[in-house]
Amino acid sequence: MQNTAVQNTAVQNTAAQSTYPSASSSPWSGRLVGPLGGTVVGLVGARGGAGATTLAALLAAALAQHTATVLVDLVGGAGLDVTLGLEAVPGPRWPDLTGAGDVAGDQLLAALPRWGRVALVSTDRARPGLPPPDDVLDRLGEAAGTVLLDLPPCDVLARRAPVGRCDLVVVVAGRDITSVGGAVALRTALGPAAARTGLMASDARRGTLSLAELEQAAGLPLLGRVPYDRSLVQSAERGLLRARRATARIPATLARTVLGLQ
Ligand SMILES: Nc1ncnc2c1ncn2[C@@H]1O[C@H](COP(=O)(O)OP(=O)(O)OP(=O)(O)O)[C@@H](O)[C@H]1O
Ligand SMILES: [Mg+2]
Q1: C-alpha angle with apex 139: 259 to 115, nearest 5 degrees?
Q2: If you measure from the C-alpha of residue 148 to the centroid of ligand 2, how many angstroms do you get, rounded to a whole number?
Q3: pTM of the model as a whole
Q4: What is the assigned CATH class of domain 37-260?
Q5: Ligand 2 centroid to 8 CA: how many Å?
Q6: CA-to-CA distance for 96 and 130, rounded, in angstroms?
């Protein structure tokens, strides 16, 4: 290992020794039964700009080929509707969903704006903030096959993100030392959910660590790697988010792992 800082950050990889699926193994069968019917996957970046939101969207699109899928923005800021080019599409955003826990899940799902086949619960840049999400997440989980949560790292670190309801947490990390440190911090803050957490390496920021170094230092089992994809950058700026075919195969593989949890 070349980077002594990585060595210093390396921790005992207890999660990797569990029955968790790696990219090369069969889907994990040791699922804890969560509070929801649908499979819930949380994605969180180990550092800013790691590619977590992009992977969440690509994974949602892959899952939506198989089952009703909803992508939930728990981050705020621009809002996922802007990121996905849906800002002009009507439909409820988080501020409209106060009290929506009383609405049947299938009705709620049907009312949401769509990105292709993916239903979207976005924040609203004009009305920042979101109501307590638990009731809405409960209803969506009853109606959707998969629920993807774009999680804010700060909430995970503060132990107030809904990671307890996740069947799988995906930490998206660059191949750099800042991502390693971030992943270690997230793994620690995830508590029991760390045993249901895997790592996706993303080359969005073009780091130089090997995948083995990243996996060992982060102390989380590697699920796969998203290569650098210039068409993702260019299309994202136009609100389209189109991956090259080779890149799209990665979330498709991850989707099969998620579907194996059902
Ligand atoms: N595989 C990739 N190849 C090249 N660029 C990428 C890739 N994935 C994401 N990007 C680009 O990197 C930038 C950050 O991506 P993204 O917003 O998905 O990261 P994030 O981890 O969600 O960031 P944030 O910390 O802002 O939440 C965006 O400009 C996006 O288009
Ligand atoms: Mg993001």
Answers
A1: 60
A2: 13
A3: 0.88
A4: alpha beta
A5: 28
A6: 9
